[in-house]
Fold this sequence. Notes:
One of its GO terms (cellular component) is Golgi membrane. It is built from 15 helices and 26 strands. It is of the alpha+beta class. Strands 15, 16, 17, 18, 19, 20, 21 and 26 form an 8-stranded antiparallel beta sheet that branches. A hairpin with an 8-residue loop joins strand 20 and strand 21. The longest helix is centred in the first third of the chain and has 27 residues, at 2-28. The structure holds ligand LR7 and manganese (II) ion.
Amino acid sequence: MRRIRANAIAILTVAWILGTFYYLWQDSKPASTPSSSASQARGRGHGQKLVPGRLEIHRDDRTIPLIVTQPPRGEQQNQLLGGFDEKAYLATKQLKPGDDPYREHAFNLQESDRLGSERAIRDTRHYRCASLTYDAELPSTSIIITFHNEARSTLLRTIKSVLMRSPTSLIQEIILIDDFSTDPEDCQLLSQIPKVRCLRNSRREGLIRSRVRGANTASATILTFLDSHCEVNADWLQPMIQRVKEDHTRVVSPIIDVISLDNFAYLAASADLRGGFDWSLHFKWEQIPIEQKMARSDPTQPIRTPVIAGGIFVMDKSWFNHLGQYDTHMDIWGGENFELSFRVWMCGGSLEILPCSRVGHVFRKRHPYDFPEGNALTYIKNTRRAAEVWMDEYKQYYYSARPSAQGKAFGSIADRLTLRRKLNCKPFRWYMENVYPELRVPEQEAVSSVLKQAGMCLETRGRDGLGLAECRGAGTNRPQSQKWELVEPLIRQQDLCLAISAFTAGSKVKMELCNSKEPRQKWKPKGPALQHVVSGLCLDSQSTSGPLVIAQCRPQVAGQSWEPQVLV
Ligand code: LR7
Ligand code: MN
């Protein structure tokens, strides 16, 4: 008897285990076939690589069923849209038989229209997110969506997903900015939806000035920006508002899931990515640095990011205004995400991606609209403005990576430079050292500079001696003895390099034949100081007449402040 019972228990256990495996196997299959384009990396020439580099459906923990966010039905739905007739709205402008479904919007319009105004999507968050709680009292937000000739179905789904998947009390209003789309009716009709206001530009302004217009009319204390072809996911808004409420200098983004431009499948993006760029100011998704990844014990924690993709973020309104909104001399599309990101970090704020907030976005391979000044020139103008205002001496790498930018018009940046001074923002070098140390400075042709301290210049004397002396000559006419080339990690003068004589504090610094493998010759900037990499000690003049030594780094001490000035 006992044996039969034991067998029965064993059989049941095996069946249970097999059942669980079957369920998990089912669960790990994507809901629909990912589009062929979903994993393609795609630069768009001047702009961004648009798709998060690695896509994955979340499988980290499969012990609870996935919750699919359902659209509301009946009554509730009517309340959401008020008197707005969505059927009539969507029925016009449908694709005619034989039309290329990609032509007008660079995504498959037929598939988008087929989905209609709403649909259930997979809750793509890590399962732990569902059990997080947020303050009962969170401030409400103004949602700002700018659009230029957006498809009706994608735009309506964006709006409706916001109304369906946000706590009602958090949505103060949805502000649409119609950036001079061909048909003014979209704007008028959508204004019938409760909470929706639509402002139409009387000429094409581009997304940057359009967003500023939206922000200026917003009545909530928190701004939320969205593209016009998004679908927000379960509880997307609370985590972002919570973080901004706790610290108004934070600017936060969700993880941006991918809506396939071919079949409109909603695909989870990797939760291990952050925003980065190369020196040509080309945006890219990149892996979180390994040390940070190892330190992340909690997958719900925010991810610090050097830059944001640009389209989807939440920011305190007074902080947005305090920091100078956007550079409104940037046109149409591109570059504003770098400008905003540099400004936020360098002027006292921070940028983060919140894994518990997810928003889907239709990533495209080309721009479906025209650029009145041309795509390339516009991108160059915008990124040049960002580089000229914010990148200090590092802008040289931007120009080397994008030589065609030299000599192209970018307008006056005087106002933005004044803003930077007024806000007392940190130098780009600070950003490089503290926010984005992973961005490698390219092997460069040596640039000549002087190393100035309190108006005096560092110079070589005799065979291997060094000292401070009055600066002589001007520009490139400086005497050789005062011209330095800073090619990390070396500080060189022709074939001689700055080297320490021993690794202890007080050791003299001298010149010797360059050898980039020699640890005694390795230096790196540390704020205004020059730090010897291995000893961690800083170049110190002690007194203007004495010898040069290495000493404990004390930032702010005059004898350790070396301002390199590039000679042109
Ligand atoms: O002239 C224009 N006027 C507009 O109102 C051009 C565009 N727009 C609207 C447009 O309808 C859309 O709603 O502006 C929004 C963004 O334009 P997209 O969708 O063509 O841009 P994108 O998704 O290709 O590009 C990303 O980078 C842009 C740089 O300027 C903006 O910051 C976009 O908001 C941004 N999108 C995202 O961050 C979503 C995630 C994509 C990534 C990476
Ligand atoms: Mn977009």
